[in-house]
Amino acid sequence: MNFSTRPSLSAPRSHAFCCTAMQCPAFVYSKLMSMHTFVKIFCTRVRHRATWPLCNDRLVRGTRDAMAKKTKTTSNATLPERANRTTIVDVARCAGVHWSTVSRGLNPEKRHLISPEMIERVETCAKQLGYRANAMASALRTQRSRTVGVIVSNLGDPVHPPIVRAIEDRFAEIGYVTIVGNTDNHPGRQAALIERFIQQGVEGLIVATFERNDPGIAVCVEANIPVVAVFRDPESEFVPSVRIDDAKAMELAVHHLAERGHRKIAHIGGPQNVSTGYHRYRGFRRACKALANQGVEPSAVFGEAFTVEEGQFACERLLADHNDITAIVAGNDMLAVGCLRFLRSKGIDCPNAISVVGMNDMLFMEDIAPALTTVRTPTADLGTQASCILVSMIQGLPISNDRILLKPELMVRDSVTSVDAQQSTKRRRPAK
Amino acid sequence: MNFSTRPSLSAPRSHAFCCTAMQCPAFVYSKLMSMHTFVKIFCTRVRHRATWPLCNDRLVRGTRDAMAKKTKTTSNATLPERANRTTIVDVARCAGVHWSTVSRGLNPEKRHLISPEMIERVETCAKQLGYRANAMASALRTQRSRTVGVIVSNLGDPVHPPIVRAIEDRFAEIGYVTIVGNTDNHPGRQAALIERFIQQGVEGLIVATFERNDPGIAVCVEANIPVVAVFRDPESEFVPSVRIDDAKAMELAVHHLAERGHRKIAHIGGPQNVSTGYHRYRGFRRACKALANQGVEPSAVFGEAFTVEEGQFACERLLADHNDITAIVAGNDMLAVGCLRFLRSKGIDCPNAISVVGMNDMLFMEDIAPALTTVRTPTADLGTQASCILVSMIQGLPISNDRILLKPELMVRDSVTSVDAQQSTKRRRPAK
DNA sequence: CTGAAAGCGCTTACAG
DNA sequence: CTGAAAGCGCTTACAG
Questions:
Q1: Which DSSP letter does residue A407 get?
Q2: Strand C nucleotides below 7 A of a protein CB?
Q3: What residues of chain A lie within 8 A of the CB of B361, using their CB?
Q4: CA nearest A62: which of A20, A14, A26, A132?
């Protein structure tokens, strides 16, 4: 079956719709449309255009008011057929009024200009014809697309969906539509996406992929598109940001470990060209330094991305170089899960041989083995707050705080034990 | 700081831009824009409009070719200020040619109509002015929005993001932009979303929330919007669907358990008004019936949604009514995780007291305790295949198979053990 | 090869 | 309270 809904791109469609279903050989003959599709479209059309003369389609369209004065019919034969959507003109014709009246009658803000019975008449016709305003035409005229864009690195990474979800919720409330794109952390893809979204006319952008001093920022500022950075800190005075206090999060993790007697603590960091990786590493180092007098000795190794695989590799390298560590602070939960997988694969017990702390507290981190002690990032809040700022920017309202730093919270679970407990069990890992 | 980029909705903006930064008291005075924003916009503007006379903005805009003949300047004072975006007319003016030539020069498909030096000139100007075609204007004219919509129940549910991700990837390839919406399984929200997306002019829709015989289908068919159902089966001849073979999946699970000696097997099902819940339950029953001669005795209890919480509640009810079961086949991984949480909370060992099988194999299901034996749904494939069908529909190509059923695959892990093993350990759960 | 014009479907200032 | 007209920024058939 052919499900195409644009079957007549090159078919003599204007002719087709002149004839009734009974007398339409040319149409069916063109074979560009299945009988089923034809009947479907035809019926819809007949219902929608009930008040129209069923003559030449082009001519009918042509009877629009402009047509009244111009005698020449422009032929637009190669224009892709509109999905024969009901327009404001159709409604106007049905109601026997001018389209401007229809527009007013259907717009709550202009409705007061119209008599009640007129509103009623217009609404009835609109409902009857199944009229739906063309948002693009409206946007073109009003210069407001009621559209926002969200750019993330990868929706497949479980930190992002809650952010996007929260944003969509907030904007749906005010009738905006949310378009999303994934960059996979490729600057090129990000640039292309920003370009495409601006072309698309987004009224604002929420970006979760800005690197430090990202060139994408200049593009948005120049195009005069409100942007807010979420999750990552673009370190730009031009862009408000909403993020978690990464350094503080690492401090919580390090203190938690130090209180339990850990001294040889390692960090498995993420990429340092993004603020999350960078600030977490710095936070880790600073926290360790502050505890140096207690004998805390930090070490670090880095993944090239915040992924489980990188976590595994990094963990392997870490243990090769620093066999004496008792605890790991991972740059995020993905890396932490990678650690756990590696440790498990080597028969190294967590937390009894090595304790692990993650960050973000993604879904299911309480269900994994061992239940992961991690620092929670309120991802939905991140999205909500970013949305609120963006809404203000779009509406031209001042924003009180353009540098929002959410508080991290330590979730104590089972992947950390005290050094004492480690020593009383088979603390040492199997020799390599 | 005020980050607004539309500060002058009511400010005398056209006047503002007549003056240089030095002599602009009225503008700054209006206090609708911070100095910083003003300077930013002003600089951008000066750079972009370098070739324009810096006189009255409205007048400058008015010098468009239509203006040449009409003496009266229409005032559009209350129109929200365009983000003073460079238009095709600006480029034309810069290049000293007609805009139609610019349009052709910038469109790869029409470029052959234009002389090479003309193309060069146009491209130079476009680049210099930072021209970006207005996708909405283009869409309005061509009747193609290069936009598709994706509707899911909840991006926060980890099954959906990979689907959306795959769809976005496929459509980004052909320059389409993807808009997403969440319904939370509320028919009302779904209807509103479909309505809004159609208004927005989507060329197609991928819907993961169709119930059986969903009324939303008629809306799309009537509006002549290509739709493909993903994940769920709308049971409609009008809509192609791409889904997993739910019944087969349950069969795999039941057989896996039966082979390991389980006879009292329970199903924790999802909502029965959606095909996933419905077909999985039916598949479970059929598989059990086929093994009735081996003594397999099914039982079932249902959650009201595919959530962890519902899994917990359902598991509690199940054990209250059927204390003798040895294994549970959950309707999906969320329900399975709910089971595991409940069992853990009651000190009931999985798999040694009760074995559990999930479905979908979401991220981290191999990491939870115990590693979940589950039936994998290739979610990314679901998205990819749905996208391919939708692309064909949009392009008016015939589609070979409009009822795609992907094969499930059993992932054997640690949440199932044999009844023998169960009996040799502390099989019986603590009495309630 | 390039220009001039029309029109996609709306909204809104201006008349009446 | 309603109508007539203009224009948002494009694309494209038609002339030349």
A1: P
A2: 1-14
A3: none
A4: A14
CA-nearest of B184, B366, B165 to A161 is B165
**DSSP class of B197:** H
The three-point CA angle B419-B421-B424 to 5° equals 110
What is the reported pLDDT for A42?
37
- Residue B61's pLDDT is 31
Task: Supply the pLDDT for residue B362.
Answer: 97
B82 CB-to-strand D distance under 7 Å? yes
Q: Cβ separation of A180 and B182 shorter than 8 Å? A: no
**Nearest CB partner across the interface for B396, out of A4, A84, A142:** A4
Q: Are A83 and B225 in contact (CB under 8 A)?
A: yes
CA neighbours closer than 13 Å in the CB half-sphere of residue A10: 5
- C-alpha to C-alpha distance for A43 and A55, rounded to whole angstroms: 16
Tell me whether residues B40 and A181 touch, CB distance under 8 A.
Answer: no
Q: Which residues pair with B152 in a beta bridge?
A: B182
**C-beta of residue A393 within 8 angstroms of C-beta of residue A226:** yes
| Closest by Cβ to B402, choosing from A1, A9, A32 | A1
Shortest alpha-carbon distance between residue A294 and chain B (Å)? 35
The nearest CA of chain A is from the CA of B302 a distance in Å of 22
Give the amino acid at A106: L
Ranges in chain A, pLDDT < 50: 1-82, 431-432
- How many interchain CB pairs under 8 A, A with B? 231
Residues of chain B short of pLDDT 70, as ranges, are: 1-83, 426-432
Q: What is the CA angle B321-B326-B328, rounded to 5?
A: 75
Instruction: List domains and CATH numbers for chain A.
Output: 1-67 (no CATH), 145-244+381-407 (3.40.50.2300), 246-377+410-424 (3.40.50.2300)
Interatomic distance A46 CA / C10 C1' (Å): 24
Compute chain B's Rg from CA coordinates.
30
What are the pLDDT digits (tens) for A303-349?
A: 999 999 999 999 999 999 999 999 999 999 999 999 999 999 999 99
pLDDT of residue B114: 87
Report helix angle B308-321 to B333-345, nearest 10.
Answer: 60
Percent of chain B as helix, strand, coil, to the nearest 5? 45, 15, 40
- Assess contact for A254 and A291: CB atoms under 8 A: yes
At residue A71, the pLDDT reads: 29
Cβ B180–A172 below 8 Å, yes or no? no
Contact indicator for A190, A209 with CB cutoff of 8 Å: yes
Spatial CB neighbours of B47, under 8 Å, sequence gap ≥ 6? none
